Amino acid sequence: MPELPLEFRREILGPLAAKLHARKSTQLLGVGSCGKSNIVRHLARADVQALYFRQAAPTLLYLNVDCQDLADFQDASVYALILRELGRKLGARADAAQALQPQVNEWYRATRVAGGDGLARDHLEDALTLLLDGPIQLLILLFDDCDDLIRHASPALLKSLRALRDDHKEQMAYATATRRELALLETRAPGQKEMSSEFESFFELFSAYSIAITPYLEDDAKMMLHRLEAREDIVTAPLNQHARSELLRVSGGHAGLIKAGYEILKGLGRMPDENMADYLFRKQLIYAECKKIWQSLEPDEHADLAALVRGTKPEGSGLNPLQKKGLIRKRSDSAFDLFSPLFDRFVREEIGASAAQPSKAAAPASNTSAAPNVTFDASNYTVIVNGRPIQLKRVEADLFDYLFANRARACSLGELLTVMVRHEAGANLQQSLERQLYHLAAKLNVGGLIVLTHHPDKSWQVLAR
């Protein structure tokens, strides 16, 4: 697998690093499957840190806290996860900071054993003080994929995170990576009209500093497609130049659409006989990626996209954020085009469906009319997709059995935990469940088909006729 170029996503990482170097907490905002994870991981590389932070890089500690690793959103769980990642990062260093790992790990273990929000918070404060009074001059704490954490975080947690940063504001900055603006993620009590003081205090750190993750620029888009091709065995022929160019054009440079389109085209083995966008849009993988983008947007953005594809004047406040996210592009005549012909087709279809069925517009789309034929032999743990058998493990078969029986709707993680608990138990049960579901989806979703889909609210659904 070719390594990402040093200057990969410089248009995003340059401004982000400059703000964090200046101790300005910053929110990274990107629609579904836009490539947030690649950006977050790329900044962890020592040579990338040297490029952007220069002389400050040796005393920088960059901590990527993956919020999908949280089993729950209790304050102590969040503090423990930060301590765990601190220990891991310190252990990977080759300087004086590595000597601090045993103490940080001890605080992490004590937090896990004893529990309690107050103790966990005290241990994290002790760890930060130990680091920042010692060899670390700048700590960047990035909360990756943290939409759900922000929605469910207690006021006490948000207040505490703000206080921790204020206590070390000369040496510490936060970053968040979310699909939606932080200001829109607060969960308000019935009748609550104003932002809570705790949420407002935390949000103030980020309110002036927001960076939207746009689709790939041309060179990065070409490179990412090349990486996808490099993963294949020698039997899978690479796409020809015309197919590559057409895929990059119709995807608009969106990471998820590039990957989905490639998976479909490599299975076809040639250019489709018809228009590339028309051919790809009928595929479940493409529909699902477009749906992720749509579900990441706000009502004003939906309304203005609808106006643009209808050829009417947008009346909402969605144009500016859509431009910042790179989802619409201004032409020389001041009119706008959607960034991708595939997403343009999706919006047109979505609006037509919404107009006909307004009460169902917010429901997850199953698009079963184009779904594959699926049967399930529970006795042999075998799923048959369009005549092709797929062998499952027992835990996978039990999960699929439940999902298949309830395929008319999406199934929540809570429901699926009742299946998972038959096979294992423990504090990390939800993590284990999600790993099983992702492995199951990887087995089933092949050849351009989607049998098992994952909705933004973390529910899962089988799409089958």
Chart the SSEs and their pairings.
Elements: H1 10-21, E1 26-29, H2 36-42, H3 46-53, E2 60-66, H4 75-91, H5 101-114, H6 117-132, E3 138-144, H7 147-152, H8 155-167, E4 172-178, H9 197-203, E5 210-212, H10 218-230, H11 241-251, H12 255-268, H13 276-281, H14 284-295, H15 299-310, H16 319-324, E6 328-330, E7 336-338, H17 341-356, E8 374-377, E9 382-385, E10 388-391, H18 394-405, H19 413-420, H20 429-444, E11 452-454, E12 460-462
Parallel strand pairs: 1-4, 1-5, 2-3, 3-4
Antiparallel strand pairs: 6-7, 8-9, 9-10, 11-12
The averaged pLDDT comes out at 90
Helix count, DSSP H or I runs of 4 or more residues: 20
Structural class based on helices, strands and sheet pairing: alpha/beta
CATH class of the largest domain: Alpha Beta
The CATH homologous superfamily of the largest domain is named P-loop containing nucleotide triphosphate hydrolases
Can you count the beta strands? 12
Please tell me how large the radius of gyration is.
23 Å
What is the CATH architecture assignment of the largest domain? 3-Layer(aba) Sandwich
Distance between the termini: 37 Å
> What does the main sheet amount to?
5 strands, parallel
